[in-house]
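WARN no homologs supplied; continuing
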Amino acid sequence: MEKNKKKSKYNETEKHFDTKRKKTILLILFLILISSIFIALTIGVYKISANDVYNIVITHLNPWGDTNDLYRVYDVIVWNIRFPRILLSVAVGIALALAGGIYQGCFRNPLVEPYILGVESGAAFGAALAIVIPSFFFSLQISAFIFGSIAVFGAYMLARVRGETPTIMLILSGVIIGSVFAAFVSILKYIATDAALREIVFWMMGGFYYASWSDVLLILPIVIICFFILWIFSWKLNILSMGDEESKTLGVNPELYKVIFVIIATLITAISVSAVGIIAWVGLMMPHASRMLLGPDHRFMLPAAAMMGAIYMILCDTLARTLTSAEIPVGILTSIIGAPYLIYLIRNKGKLIFGVG
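OK structure emitted
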């Protein structure tokens, strides 16, 4: 009896230290994210000192700050060009990494990513439609968002069988819907003019070239709100990761919460893709890296993946706008960096990667 008490006390102590370690890692990631934002503000083709960047940001954030005292050129570059671009990359990085972690947990499949249900093909069709027929929608972003959402809704309805949505059917439906919309995009490319074709291809590569404060003010609050909703219910995602039968046994309705999680993940994915185009690998890589660092508990894994996604996007975007005089699409860099990284994970950490659920 006394031996069991000692063992229980030891397990509680070990659990306490493990939780403390995870919280410490999350704090470190948060500090790295804040530092990355500030460092990225100081890096660019136009050289601006860290002190000038600090003064510009503080002056704008201070309700009583007088922006007339700032050097106009520096102010425009830092506040109107770099800062909204960096914040948008943070929002997109959080959204894609978060959606990837949600999909992997819901489907109990480590190879699932935010685009598995065809949202990128649907969004690409919407964007191409807006480019080829400009009068069809008010804006490219609205068209991309609407058709991205339609693609996911179509995949979900196609997979619905007798009131249930089997995971394998949902994934197969996503592949089918994605292929259909990809064919539609090919048709639009075929009939597009040379200028429109170049614009479609450029959009599909992904990038933050047109980032503005209006994009940030629209997307960042939605992503943050969705993050906190998903984080609050992350313990239910832990249960869903065990399987449908185990979830029902523990009093969790798997169908209901799958729908909730998929809707929220789709929302943040669609709104991100509509704003910046298709950026691959983030939603696949970051949940894996987070899981290796903190384990499969989604209460810790999701916030870590979100912050790592934001840091990664800041890094890639900074490289995209500084490596050459002509800007490189971010989607190219995420693929170039992401593919070797995933190969490394598969070859060296395979057991951890495939330890979902």
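Residues 2-113+213-353 form a domain with the ABC transporter involved in vitamin B12 uptake, BtuC fold (CATH 1.10.3470.10).
OK
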